[in-house]
Amino acid sequence: MLARLFRPREFTGWHMVAVMVLFFGTIISVNLVLAYFANSSWSGLVVQNSYVESQRFDAQTAVKRRQAALGWTVHTSYEGGVFAVSLADAEGRPIRDVSVEATIGRPTTEREDRTLRLKPVRGGDYAAPTKLGTGLWEAAIAVTATDEPSWDKAVRFVLE
């Protein structure tokens, strides 16, 4: 009985066609699935027109140099559902009487982006309640004083 089950069978052209269809069908299916996910997820687009943005490069570089010359530092924290920012000047003194806004989101998608207007807590500390999940986050912090242009800083942090 076992000899009947395991006797050699002839490999015909139809068998080869089936093997080829399964092989290439698998490859094409995987490619279509990957193409769908690549097209439906984040586009990676940072600016609408890179040429126009390149024309602004010198002005943006001058702004960044001016901000770096101020020597301001920023420290972020997230605890108990509250996102907090501590601001200090070059001498380590807290920066008071400024407006602080933070746009928080994931670096790879815009789905969870949110903009928070942080309120002063004490000294140079500003905070706002928000719910953040675990993983990598990016905060674009904009500090605006009444007599100066906005000071911007991007900070990445990980929540576990």
List keywords for this structure.
160 residues; Immunoglobulin-like; seven-stranded antiparallel beta sheet; 4 helices; 34% strand
Describe this structure in words.
The protein is an alpha+beta fold and 160 residues long. It has a domain at 73-159: Immunoglobulin-like, CATH 2.60.40.10. Helix content is 32%, strand content 34%. The protein has 4 helices and 7 strands. The protein has helices spanning 2-5, 13-40, 50-55, 57-70; strands at 73-79, 82-88, 99-105, 114-122, 125-129, 135-144, 151-159. It has a 7-stranded antiparallel sheet with strand order 1-2-5-4-3-6-7, with no helix packed on it. The longest helix is centred in the N-terminal third of the chain and has 28 residues, at 13-40. The chain is elongated and about 90 Å long. The protein starts with a helix and ends with a strand. The mean pLDDT is 90.
List the helices and strands and how they pair.
Blueprint lengths: L1 H4 L7 H28 L9 H6 L1 H14 L2 E7 L2 E7 L10 E7 L8 E9 L2 E5 L5 E10 L6 E9 L1
Antiparallel strand pairs: 1-2, 2-5, 3-4, 3-6, 4-5, 6-7
Protein name: FixH family protein
Keywords: Membrane, Transmembrane, Transmembrane helix
InterPro entries: FixH, FixH_proteobacterial
Put simply, the count of helices is 4
**Biggest β-sheet, characterized?**
7 strands, antiparallel
Q: Shape, please?
A: elongated
Average pLDDT rating: 90
Strand percentage, roughly?
A: 25-35%
Runs in which pLDDT lies below 50 for 5 or more consecutive residues are: none
Question: What is the name of the CATH architecture of one domain?
Answer: Sandwich
CATH topology of one domain: Immunoglobulin-like
Using the coordinates above, name the CATH class of one domain: Mainly Beta
Annotated CATH homologous superfamily of one domain: Immunoglobulins
Residue share in helix? 25-40%
Amino- and carboxy-terminal Cα gap: 61 Å
Compressed to H and E, one letter per element, the order equals: HHHHEEEEEEE
Pfam family, one: FixH
Keywords: Membrane, Transmembrane, Transmembrane helix
InterPro entries: FixH, FixH_proteobacterial
Protein name: FixH family protein
